[in-house]
């Protein structure tokens, strides 16, 4: 009897201590990663997924005593209703703590209200329309914005004897952001935009647009197309003979994406662009990143999308260290705001007011290094906030 009583007491103590322990300590931190792993923008998904896996392999799968569990979902890249359903299922059924990924702007827009309603941190690793971060107070962005990277090339063009520009952009959020910022900065530098056209996002046929740009006879074409689309764009630029007609190409780095740049061939040589990341960025951190990425993914070169995934994971790990593993939306956001760290792309920070990324924008030129095409940086603008919110 005495023994039984003692056993019961021990059991009661054990139960009490279990109940008293923070319930979440033993649970994994679940990250619902929604990416286009198939469809026309699959390269974005593959790059980010590879970077997320590399981050976990490099830094371990436990932070502040909690295991990190990534649940990857393919939204196919072109259907906002699919992204929305996946986000809903991840929150309700899988009980994820954090949403992440979002390859394209309409997909980020579709998930934003769910992040707000469920108070879940939402890490935008790719989509780059300025307004995205205003759609939920729980959004943090580790990619970039189109106004952020378009101002640099507009300023460079105005200072480098380019007087008349024709603008070609993909007809949705990031393209319109790029067009508006280019017009504003280029005009301020004394340049003139003599025409513009917007190309459909779905099944784009670049030929007729390129012809219109050529007929306008500008000094240069300024272009934005989303990651993965640059090859088709460059092919038509070459075939319609714009370079032969003396028309230069200037662009955001999306057009000269490292994932496909080498396959573009010599048409890309000499093209000037501005962007926040090049695989050729010369820093100790980036040399290590590119080497590790290529070792883990033979035949693949990391592009700017991969950095959004890498730094998104870095942000999550740093925040969890600060909160002691607490994923509560408000505590997570409070810890993330104002955070600053060194990424393979350079120094970056999360603006405390907008929750958007502040970073260096580089001016680059396509050059051949050891037989391969790279965006070689030759100038930089430090600490660029998203001008779309100023
Ligand atoms: C977006 C997608 C891209 O592939 C890119 O390079 C820039 C922006 C977007 O949809 O936001």
Bound molecules: 3,4-dihydroxybenzoic acid
Please tally the helical runs, counting DSSP H or I stretches of 4 or more residues.
11
Q: Look at the structure and give the mean pLDDT.
A: 94
**Segments where pLDDT lies below 50 for 5+ residues?**
1-23
Gyration radius, in Å: 23 Å
| Helix and strand composition category | alpha/beta
Order of helices and strands: HEHEEHEHEEHEHEHEHEEHHHEEEE
* Cα shape: globular
What kind of sheet is the major sheet? 9 strands, mixed
User: How many beta-strand elements?
Assistant: 15
The amount of beta strand, in percent, is 15-25%
- Helix coverage percent: 25-40%
- Measured between the Cα atoms of the first and last residue, the distance is 76 Å
What's the arrangement of secondary structure elements?
Layout: H1 2-20, E1 29-35, H2 42-59, E2 62-63, E3 66-74, H3 80-92, E4 98-101, H4 105-118, E5 122-124, E6 139-141, H5 146-159, E7 164-170, H6 173-188, E8 192-199, H7 206-215, E9 220-224, H8 230-239, E10 248-252, E11 272-275, H9 284-296, H10 304-323, H11 329-336, E12 340-343, E13 346-350, E14 357-369, E15 372-384
Helix pairs in contact: 2-10, 3-4, 5-6, 10-11
Bound molecules: 3,4-dihydroxybenzoic acid.
